[in-house]
Design a protein that fits this description.
globular, 41 residues
Amino acid sequence: MNIEKNRHLIILDTLTKASKPVTAEQLADLSRSSIRTPNES
């Protein structure tokens, strides 16, 4: 799985399985990105 192209899937999976709030920093670490990653539209 290419992390850059599937970052949204990692984030959604993490959020749906979380039993407590997840921080932006945690999501960035899991998806190997920055909390300031620009939107690449």
